[in-house]
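Trying the structure run again after the queue cleared.
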Amino acid sequence: MRRAFRWTAIATVRGRIEPLLQIHVVLTLYAPIIPETASSEIDVRAAILHVQWRGQMTTFSAGSPINRREFLRHSGRSAGAVALGAGALLQGCQSLPSMPEPEVRPTLKIPHNMDVADALLTAGAAELDLGSYASRGWGYDATLPGPTLRARVGERARIGLLNQLAEETTIHWHGMVVPTSMDGHPADAVPPGAGYTYDYPIVQRAAMNWYHPHPHGGTGRQIWRGLAGALIVEDPIAEQGLPSGDREIPLLLRDGLLDGSGQLEYRRRNSGMVGDFPLVNGVPYPSITLAPALHRFRLLNAANARVFRLGTSNATRLILIGNDGGLLEQPLELDTIELGPAERVDVLIDLSDHATGTTMALRCHRAGWDLLGMRIAGERDRETVTPSAFSPIPRLSVGPDTQRRTFRFEGHRRINGREYRMDEVDFRVPMGETEIWEFESSGGAPHPVHVHGAHFQVMSRSGGRGRVFPWEQGWKDTVLLEDRERVEIAIRFDTYSGVYLLHCHKLEHEDAGMMLNFEVT
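Done. Tokens:
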């Protein structure tokens, strides 16, 4: 009986299989009153579900008649299952992922590189390759995610946007310190069919940043549909000796959800949009073959609301070397790293002592997903050396007289009791002065708090997890705020004046109004 419910095309039939599941539940609940004789058979041959999908008929056949004992064995009936009742059993069936893990994992896609000096990004339709078919989405240059933009410290970015969507959009250069007119503010949204040129100097440390839309009320939907990409700032001197080329691998992590027709589905929820299967660089459950050597992984949580707790499946340690704002002062070996939406880390994984044929995975311990399967093959690199130190990071100076501000993130839509108003400035910050900002959680957590226009340093965390984590050292632009937590940061705006944003980067919170304008003067 169980084979009758095997989901060979689960992404396309999930919304249509409930009638058959209901038959299964009824038969299961009534099984105790079926006489236990060899001649008492449940003829389920008629329980055939025809599912129309893209012009093809998919048939689920229950097979030949089975007797009571066989039925109970194959349906997995137990006293516990009967006690659950029909509702609970259906709920359990609905927890199956809309895209199950395949027997053979597809190959990881590495987005192609594009120089920022003279680039053009077209926001429009794209397809998500799900192996047997493609799901419609959006992307930059018809890819999901978009191309990896690369720049060097001191260069100038000149990037055009052509909006081929049916709605307005912007590009926000997340983690980049840029003039306010180049920041992709919601007030600077680009109408359908129009274009905009982003032109700014690269005035910050080497780091992995990213780009994504920022239209008010539509950010969550546009990013979920696929509009996002990496922007990597390089510094050959600071990064000397680190893996490069095919041993430097950017990974954009997110989740997905498919509707009954197998299309990428967006459901706006106050608590944040969370999917039920992983996507890495736009590929569900991918794999990669790696040489037994030292590899650099640039990791971005590009999900709308999901928090990833990253580790490996075989206890190989992650060597943390950087985060949002670039390289840290010292590498640190860790078993797990937790990333809220929009946070990034730069890690090394040393595979030089792994034998050819070894298999392992980058795992999300929160979801229980093996995000990226890894197979080790090739000749061992015996010249592998992990750098022992990086560039120093000066601490921002604070004292008893330092200006303090408190921001309470309340529920799903308010900061300090206010919802976002695009045409109002909520507070002003003096240029060049260090301040202490306190972020407090008051329901609706987790809140990944993001500040535009500058990087900051995390000073303390009280309540909740009660500590500053290794991946929160150095320079940050986003920090995760969990329930009952208070996080203090030191921040100074010393590059550009103008209006910038402070907001929760759980995108449905941002869209609902959990965002403030502030002006650097």
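The helical segments are 10-13, 18-30, 68-75, 79-94, 219-225, 507-512. Worth checking whether this holds up in the mutant runs.
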